[in-house]
Design goal:
The chain is mainly alpha-helical. The chain is built from 13 helices and no strands. It has a domain of about 200 residues. Helices cover about 70% and strands about 0% of the residues. α4 runs antiparallel to α6, α4 packs across α13 and α7 crosses α9.
Length: about 325
């Protein structure tokens, strides 16, 4: 593949971290969609923004590792698509069938399904007449990150299989450009650019979180516990004294994810299956339906517990009967 591949330590906590960050997003969306306020310090620190960016960082590490160990681009894309596409089609199909049963206009439902199935949910996030009276009409507000993931997969493939010996430099160059754009946006330099608020959540502005994962992978043997602790401390100082969120969040994600992944006791949860992706893509429409049909016990804590149990069950079924069976396993 052009250079020595330094294998990633397999006894890491990335699996449990992905489940934790999925739960953070679920928690945030549940509160927002139910118009509920509940202060819990852990989920203030690991808010949905931090959770999503942590997902991007973890993807940077794991997808780079996978690409370096995959001999050809066809196998690489089969691995990626069979991991994300079956569950996506499942959630879109189930929701679309329910919408049709509820009397939604077939062409509108077909349009929603079509756009979302090619990662363009932003072109039609809502289905007319379904969640119009909910706080947000979007069917699945979590799907916006999938197009960033897919864009990153394509960029990684281009770097690894075409740039080869310059693959790392290529990713770092794109990441530097991305960081520069996000800094410029954060400081208001790009305020006059048309559609800048929409563009700020696209791959051009967020690629550097994926790139940070690639950077860590490449220099992991030099980035030890003391370095990570220093970066973590710096992230808090930048936030507390200067309120430089763009830098503090980036440094916090970089340091805390690696500390939790490699410097805390190892928990092997793989034997229970991987329901993190299912939790991530199923929770939003599930909450929307619960709000629409006013399903409630009257107790907020019990409502969330029951919702979460249902979500875990759905995610587990998706993993066992759809996702796991569709995974591409190269010989």
């Amino acid at each position: 593949m052009g250079s020595k591949v330094m294998a990633l330590k397999r006894n890491n906590n990335f699996d449990i971290l992905r489940h934790f960050f999925a739960f953070c997003v679920v928690w945030h969306h549940y509160l927002v969609l139910n118009n509920v306020e509940f202060y819990f310090p852990l989920f203030e620190l690991f808010n949905s923004d931090v959770a999503v960016k942590s997902f991007f960082f973890i993807s940077g590490v794991l997808i780079w590792d996978s690409a370096l160990r995959t001999e050809n681009v066809k196998t690489y894309f089969l691995k990626r698509l069979t991991r994300i596409y079956p569950a996506l089609l499942l959630v879109l199909s189930v929701c679309s069938l329910i919408f049709l049963f509820m009397g939604a206009e077939p062409l509108n439902v077909a349009s929603y399904f079509s756009f979302s199935s090619v990662f363009l949910t932003f072109l039609q996030p809502c289905v007319n007449g379904i969640f119009d009276n909910n706080i947000i009409c979007a069917v699945n507000g979590s799907l916006w990150t999938l197009k960033l993931e897919v864009a990153f997969y394509i960029i990684i493939a281009f770097a690894v299989y075409f740039f080869k010996s310059k693959r790392f430099q290529f990713i770092m160059l794109l990441s530097l450009i991305s960081l520069t754009l996000d800094i410029a946006y954060s400081f208001g330099i790009l305020d006059n650019v048309p559609f800048i608020s929409q563009l700020s959540n696209q791959i051009f502005f967020k690629l550097y979180y994926f790139g940070a994962g690639v950077f860590y992978y490449n220099y992991k043997e030099y980035i030890g516990g003391k370095v990570l602790a220093s970066i973590l401390l710096l992230s808090f100082l930048l936030q507390v004294f200067f309120e430089l969120s763009i830098f503090s969040t980036f440094l916090f994600v970089f340091s805390i994810v690696i500390i939790l992944a490699f410097y805390t006791p190892y928990f092997n949860i793989s034997k229970f299956g991987d329901i993190s992706y299912g939790m991530y893509i199923f929770h939003f429409p599930l909450v929307q339906f619960l709000v629409l049909f006013e399903v409630s016990s009257g107790d907020k804590a019990i409502d969330f517990l029951l919702f979460f149990l249902v979500l875990v069950f759905i995610s587990k079924m998706s993993w066992e009967y759809v996702e796991k069976k569709c995974l591409y396993r190269s010989k």
